[in-house]
Structure formats: C-alpha cells, structure tokens
Amino acid sequence: MSTNISLKHINKLAIPALISGISEPILSLTDAAIVGNIQFNATESLAAVGIVTTFLSMLIWVLGQTRSAISSIVSQYVGANNLDEIKNLPAQAIFIITSLSVLIIIGTYPFANHIFKLYNASGLILEYSVDYYKIRVFGFPFTLFTIAVFGAFRGLQNTYYPMLIAIIGTIANIILDFILVYGIDGYIEPMHIKGAAYASVIAQLLMAICAVYYLLKKTSIPLKLSFPFNKEINRFVLMILNLFVRTIALNVTLYYASAFATSYGATYIAAYTIAINLWFLGAFIVDGYSSAGNILSGKLYGGKEYSLLITLSNKLIKYGIVIGIFIALVGGLLYYPLGNIFTNDPEVLKQFYNIFWIVLAMQPLCTLAFIFDGIFKGLGKMEVLRNVLLASTFLVFIPILFWLDYLNYKLYAIFIAITFWIIARGFPLILIFRKIFTPLSKNN
Known about the structure:
Layout: H1 7-21, H2 23-35, H3 42-63, H4 66-79, H5 89-108, H6 112-117, H7 123-136, H8 140-155, H9 160-182, H10 192-218, H11 233-263, H12 266-302, H13 306-333, H14 335-342, H15 346-361, H16 363-379, H17 382-406, H18 411-442
Helix pairs in contact: 1-9, 1-12, 2-3, 2-9, 2-10, 2-12, 3-7, 3-11, 3-12, 4-8, 4-12, 4-16, 5-8, 7-10, 8-10, 9-10, 11-12, 11-17, 11-18, 12-13, 12-15, 12-16, 13-15, 13-16, 13-18, 14-15, 15-18, 16-18, 17-18
Protein name: Multidrug-efflux transporter
Main location: membrane
Family: Belongs to the multi antimicrobial extrusion (MATE) (TC 2.A.66.1) family.
C-alpha cells in the first residue's frame, strides 16, 4: 500500500508539528518580551536573556538531535512494517541522552561566569546572565526527555500528541512568566529575570510529565529500560555523532553572531536578541513542514517508495516557498508593532528596524534549507548534513562575517552573513537529493 503524500496528509502532520515546534522559541520569546518590559534595567535583562538563550539553544540542538535519529529509525521500520524490532530503542536512547544532560549541568553550572564572559558579557549583563542560566539549566534534562519522546511519536507518524504537550507547556510558561517576573501585589514579590527562568523550568517539567503520560497511554512504545541494547543502537549513536558535529558547526555560527553583537554594546545585543528570536520563530514555523518531510521521507525510504519520495520533495519545495513568502509578508505588515512588543527603548528599536528586513527577506531561502534538513534526517543520511553545514559555516558564514565586520557593518554584517549561510546550506542538499534518488525512482 502506497504512503499517502497528499497535501491534506502533509498538513495533518505538519500543522501539529508546527505548533509543537514553536514551543521552545515561544518560551524564549515570552521571556524576552516580559523581561524586556520590566521597570528596572530592562535592556540589560533582555540582553542577558538573549545571551543565555543562544547558549541553551546550542546545548539543546547538540543533544536534542535524538529526536531526529529516533524519528528516522522508527519511521523506516514503520515503512518496512517491522516496528516490533526496535520497540525498546526509544527508552535506551532517552536513557543515554538524559544521562548526558546531567553531565552537562555538572560541567557548566560552576563555570557559568566564565562561559558568558566568552560571549563578551560583562557588568550587569554578565550578572543577569549567570543568574538566569543557573536556574534555567535545571530544565535541560526535562527538555531533552520531551524532545526524545517527540522523536518516537514522529517516527510513528503522529504529531498530534507532541502538539498537545507543547501547548500545555507554552500556556503554563506564559502564565508563570507574568506571575513570577512581575509578581502579584500582596502575594508574590516580583522576581524579575529569575522569575522568567523559574517559569521556564516549571513549564519544561510539566511537558516532560505529559510526554510520559501520552507515550505510555497512546502508543505501544515502552519507557522501561531493557538490555541488551537494540541492534540499531550503533546506527543511532553514529547518527547522533554526525549530528553532534553538525550542530557544533551550527552553534559556531550562533556563537560568533551573538559574540559580535555583544561586542557592539548593550543596545546592539538587545536588538540582535529580538531579531534572532523572531528568526528562530520563523525557523520553527517552517519546522512543521520540515518535520512532515522527516516523517514521510523515512517511511518512504524504509518502504523503498523512491518515486513517491521525489514527488514528496517537489511538493515540499512548493509549499516551503509559499510559507516563506507568507512569513515575510506577515512580518512586513507587523514590522513596527513587533519591535514594540519587546522593548520601548528607542535606540534598541532603531537598530532592530534597521536589520529586521533582512530576517524577513531570507525566509523563503530558510524554508528550503530547513525542509531538506528534515528530509535528509528522515533518510538517516546525517553525514551529508554534517558535511554541508561544516562547509557553509567555515567557508561561507565566518569569512563573510569577519569581512563585513571589518567594514563596520555591525548588525548588517551578522544578518547578511546568515543569509549567505542559509543559501549555502539549502541548495547543495537539493542537488545531492536529486543525484541520489532520481536514478532510483526510475527503477521504482
């Protein structure tokens, strides 16, 4: 029986994945928006949230690749109708990744001050960054656990329950942000930036609890750890290692972008924080269709349905370009109101408005890069993703950034470099995909 790749079915997978995918950037955007409007030291607080969010995103993206690896393997076995052979793999993967997350806490917590000095943070910004991180880092294991469970659901071709979990966590975070940051007169003292951190940790814990409930109640995947390791654990680990190297390269980009913005001063890092978080939001919106590509490509590859795989990629290119243009147009219509959500500082807003158009203009390019990221993850071809991102980071992004920074372009340098980085990520993947699967589809 052929896999359904109709627009209706793609949307059935993509829209819930889109909603669940934006939960993490919404947590950070909520923190940024609420902290950016506190009464005292709002600009420094906003800058600190931006710096810590960049570092935490690096950690989450490095270790959160379990979602893609689990999804790839499970979806391929679903396509081959052999799911029973890897039912114990998700629990083993979750055990490995949560163990690593505990080691990350132990390894970073005592050195938070030194870590954020590397991002050029100093004075009050450094103090706030350390305060915020030393609370938020305890939500890290819960986040990784939830991400891994999401991978199991995606492999099973189900994005509905991850969406429910994400909605619960997002609503909880927004409510707790208002309560803990601003306080409740006569009941709860305002906790400012620390309150935003506590709100995020509680929301992440709640999402992990919901993830346990839905996985055990709605699937046949157990969470009980069993040995010996599944036969696919070696492939899982190799995928993780390739994605680990790839994500390190990705975070070299984010590190240099954040460090350069911070070096320009508090006004610039605050403007950068708003712009990059909105960029992340756009990326995670597109991630819904990237996830659909991930889920369906894995199943099609497992079932050797190569002609449908080519058809799927063509459809996703069209949908992705339309979505990217739509995001850009909505951002253009809300150009000025968006900035005012995050800050009232006229200097910060000036710098943000100067470069936000670049963020919007690159959205169609982003959609192509992210969708093919998803397809290659579904195929399990992580080494291709690794090589493309290494090349785009070290041969494209960094040289352009340093050159434009030398010309004193400041935030323009960062976002122009990111645009060329996205182009260098997306188009090679399309060409490689065609080269591999066009011949196979003709024999299908």
